[in-house]
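Changelog-adjacent note: as of this version, every example in the card shows the full chain rather than a window. The one below runs 126 residues end to end.
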Amino acid sequence: MSAVPSDLKYTKEHEWIQGAEGATNVKIGITDFAQSALGDIVYIQLPKVGQKVVAGGVCGEVESTKSVSEIFAPVSGTVIAVNADLDTAPEVINSDPYGAGWIAEIELDDQSEELLTAAEYETLIA
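Full-length structure tokens:
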């Protein structure tokens, strides 16, 4: 079974966000379930710093030995940082999707998006 940390929020498209309630900035990434389904990740197209993203909109791509998958922004806002380490070591997403494999940090426009709790996400992937 995939790891689903209880302190994160999730989307139905298998992205996660990390940020305290009321936070203005959040980190995002893809879930353990998503990286496992993709297989060995060989390339990631990160969003650009300064890019405006809209919840549910495409903000990057992950390429694995099996397929290419889009990354959907779980929230709306402005990208303020990206994990440049993934440019040279995208496989970190496979080994540590919730830690060193984070993808971007976003300054939120608002927090009205429909996000899933860990329990709701576990039901989705069960």
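Structural remarks: Residues 23-125 form a domain with the OB fold (Dihydrolipoamide Acetyltransferase, E2P) fold (CATH 2.40.50.100).
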